[in-house]
Amino acid sequence: MNCSEGIDTRQVDELYINLDPIQAGGRLTTDAMKAVIAYGDGYSVCDNCVKPFRLDHISKPPLAEFHRDLAEFLNMDVARLVPGARRGFQAVAGAIVKPGDPVLLTAYSHYTEFLSVEQSRGMPFEIPADESHVITPDAAADRIEEVIRTTGKTPALMFVEHVDYQYGNLHPVADLTRVAHQYDIPVLCNGAYTVGIMDVKGKELGADFLTGSGHKSMAAPAPSGVLATTDEWADKVFRTTGVKGDLTGRTFGIKEVEMMGCTLMGVTSVGMMASFPHVKRRVKEFDTQVRYANQIVDALLSIEGTKVQSGYPRMHTLTRMNTIDSFDKVAKTHKKRGFFLTSALRERGITGILAGSTRVWKFNSYGINKEQAEHVSKSFIEIAEREGLPLSG
Amino acid sequence: MNCSEGIDTRQVDELYINLDPIQAGGRLTTDAMKAVIAYGDGYSVCDNCVKPFRLDHISKPPLAEFHRDLAEFLNMDVARLVPGARRGFQAVAGAIVKPGDPVLLTAYSHYTEFLSVEQSRGMPFEIPADESHVITPDAAADRIEEVIRTTGKTPALMFVEHVDYQYGNLHPVADLTRVAHQYDIPVLCNGAYTVGIMDVKGKELGADFLTGSGHKSMAAPAPSGVLATTDEWADKVFRTTGVKGDLTGRTFGIKEVEMMGCTLMGVTSVGMMASFPHVKRRVKEFDTQVRYANQIVDALLSIEGTKVQSGYPRMHTLTRMNTIDSFDKVAKTHKKRGFFLTSALRERGITGILAGSTRVWKFNSYGINKEQAEHVSKSFIEIAEREGLPLSG
Questions:
Q1: A111 contacts in B (CB within 8 Å)?
Q2: Which pLDDT band, with edges at 50, 70 and 90, does B393 fall under?
Q3: What angle do CA B263, B265, B266 make, to 5 degrees?
Q4: Range with the lowest mean pLDDT among A257-261, B1-5, B375-379?
Q5: Which residues contact B181 (CB under 8 A, 6 or more apart)?
Q6: How far is residue A264 CA from its own chain's centroid?
Q7: Average pLDDT score over residue span B284-310
């Protein structure tokens, strides 16, 4: 079946329990889908754009109110919509990092954080993780000292992951920002896996900048996201244009340089806005989601040889497993090779794990319900049993 | 009626003939709407993303093929999707303009072109328009000479509008690029009002960079657009990351720095792709659309005192009118003041002209049919007659 010339209809989330690591928190709510249909056209939110002509001032649809609510929800002073969290990194690096400036990232920083530093011609330095795959304040302090010693400069910016994409581990952001602030280093907290899923309070974390991803964790279409900051930094990162047409004398009002003016029109902004009431509610119910994730992990751990590489018990639904000594042994002789696992899961209506993975792989169970958690748990055990893998206990 | 908590359903294009200057070319096709519904989720196009893990390499949905087709359609060598034409400007300026570099723009350059120069810390210089509101090669040559003389530097980049947003005039891009190339200045041709509406052949225009807007002229959701370039410039503007995690040794494959990695996932890329077969067809039918625009302009010009400020006869559907000596006279005494015109149009099922405008205003009739062109033309005349304005002829 196709939905348009050469494009198959996508029915992954209609037909399967989807455990894809990056897709789980981005699935649209029904309200977002309705909004997407009503506001499909690009400039649909601009019908009632009046002076001063900027996205965050539009009151119908209520984008102005949404911007204020979003800042409050994130416990920050100012928020702007951006085309993905990465464009938030870019804006902050663009405003703060000068060529040659050292910038701190972590061993788990996303590639787009590195790209934003590269684009600003900064020099990236990683803070290492400890053996439990967590970035500790001591490691941050050591690295700051070392970078200052070797480069002669204080880092211009520090990126920290609230929950990282590799292990889904929660990092001690409040402690990390405390260390950074002792050196007057501003901190960007990347909440791509938390904002919209967990209750994130930017100021309690000490974040100078907080980014969220609409399509990763706020049930919004792509590319969308949010960049929030404090009054201290807003004038810098959201500075308005000061440029002028040298012949015409044109100036460009209050358009913001690092935002490139208005950012998200149509489906992306309205989709985020329509999902927002649901997002506000769902962050309060994250404990239940974590319980389901632990239930699945426990089922997997009951298969002998299986290890969880993420912190355990889980504090987030994104989880990294190691099945080298269980499912991968089966793969060595199975006629489907490494594909037996994802194929067997698919037969049971489960998808989203990287096809062919039997060694180290990730899943994200965010958004499932009780029955689905049970079904996924049982399915892993059934598959192990069918392949003759011993179960513990 | 609302489509979600606090968000009214938008029905502008269902209920009215919409002459909004920026919305006309961005309205979704039915296929784009179907694609948007099927691919609403952010990472929906990433289900089958395999090595080397980049948007333009995904073959299901056929994004790789779409990127190639798009480059060919634009008569350029390489094309990338971007979150709006502005992000194309930003990428090119980021790659080419160094702090303090002079950059040429025109008297009609869009504010986002200025912002991209401001962000790169370049110095903007405008090429003036002639009395018919066209940027001429002579004016460009004069300004280049002057900028070189006064700054001691050759401009790093020149922006030209294919059709500008102020008058909807077509500028002699091929002649302008010829002049710029004599000074080895690369040229970015902004096709926000042409790519997807007119048949734009980048190399015939001599463009080193060609941008298009998905939500302005390619019947795609926002933010979306395209940046195309030649083999000569591709390695520079689409350069791949060279940065490395200094402790982990991580590198980031073939992600492109100025693109910030992958750009448009989900609705935006699939929407563009679904509309593309229609876009390819409709650019061949632009003459008809221009005929309708001229029909409307002629009707307006038959109202005494009315002038067209754009080039006439029209060569594009975006048109700037001056009704200071016709409709604005009525506004002075009408009980609805300046709102009488847009209100009377609305009663006739026509919308999109800035509410309250009776002096200088723009319309864009792109996408209307024969009957609608007649209805709009007749409506202006009827309104003039009802208000006692004299008609010529």
A1: 241, 252, 255, 261
A2: low
A3: 155
A4: B1-5
A5: B187, B206
A6: 18
A7: 98
| Inside any domain, residue B166 | yes
Asked whether residue A212 falls in the same domain as residue A353, the answer is no
With an 8 Å Cβ cutoff, are B41 and A28 in contact? Answer: yes
pLDDT, average across residues A242-256: 97
- CATH of residue B231: 3.40.640.10
Q: Which of B248, B283, B318 is the last residue of a domain?
A: B283
Beta-carbon neighbour count of residue A27 at 10 Å? 23
Tally of domains in chain B: 2
Q: Do A17 and A44 belong together in one domain?
A: no
- Entry field: residues in chain A: 393
- Residue A112 located in a structural domain: yes
Length of chain B: 393
Asked if residue B310 is part of any domain, the answer here is yes
pLDDT single digits (tens) A260-304: 999 999 999 999 999 999 999 999 999 999 999 999 999 999 999
Q: Do residues B329 and B255 share a domain?
A: no
* ipTM here: 0.96
What number of C-beta contacts closer than 8 Å exist between A and B?
292
What CATH number does residue B357 fall under? 3.90.1150.10
Mean pLDDT of A58-71: 97
- List strand residue ranges (DSSP E) for chain B, in order: 2-4, 7-8, 17-18, 78-82, 102-106, 123-127, 157-161, 187-190, 209-213, 225-229, 307-308, 318-322, 350-351, 360-364
Q: Which one of A108, A260, A278, A362 would you mutate to disrupt binding with B, by most B Cβ within 10 Å of its Cβ?
A: A260
Q: What is the spatial distance between Cα B140 and Cα B129, in angstroms, rounded to a whole number?
A: 9
Contacts of A36 in chain B (CB under 8 A): 36-37, 40, 267
Q: Who among B118, B248, B270 is closest to A243 (CB)?
A: B118
Indicate if the pLDDT at residue A393 is higher than 70: no
Residues A325, A240 share a domain: no
Looking at the fold, whether A274 and A311 belong to one and the same domain comes out as: no
- Cβ <8 Å between A243 and B27: no
Q: What is the Cα Rg of chain B in Å?
A: 23
For a pLDDT cut of 70, what percent of chain B falls above it? 99
Same domain? B333 vs B255? no
Asked if B277 lies within 8 A of A5 by C-beta distance, the reply is: yes
For B314-327, b where at least 16 C-beta lie within 10 A, e where not — what string?
bbbbbbbbbbeebb
What number is the average pLDDT over the span B205-215?
Answer: 98
Bridge partner list, B228: B79, B210
> CB B270 to CB A5 under 8 A?
no
Q: Are residues A8 and A115 in the same domain?
A: no
pLDDT confidence tier of residue B145, bands split at 50, 70 and 90: very high
pLDDT at B122 over 90: yes
- Do B179 and B255 lie in one domain? The reply is yes
The minimum CA-CA distance between B380 and chain A, rounded to whole Å, is 21
pLDDT grade, residue B1 (50/70/90)?
A: low
Mutate to test the interface with A, among B2, B41, B351 (most CBs of A within 10 A): B41
Determine the structural domain holding residue B269 and report its residue range.
29-283
Its pTM stands at: 0.97
A391 domain residue, yes or no:
no
Instruction: Select from A86, A115, A267 the Cβ nearest to the Cβ of B36.
Output: A267
Interface test with B, best of A2, A111, A276 (most B CBs within 10 A): A111
Asked which of A283, A302, A319 is the last residue of a domain, the reply is A283
**Contact partners, residue B212, CB within 8 Å, separation at least 6:** B74, B85, B191, B192, B194, B195, B196, B200, B218, B225, B226, B228
Q: Which of B35, B105, B222 sits opposite A268 (nearest CB)?
A: B222
pLDDT digits (tens, 9 = 90+) for A347-358: 999 999 999 999
How confident is the model over A97-121, as pLDDT tens digits? 999 999 999 999 999 999 999 999 9
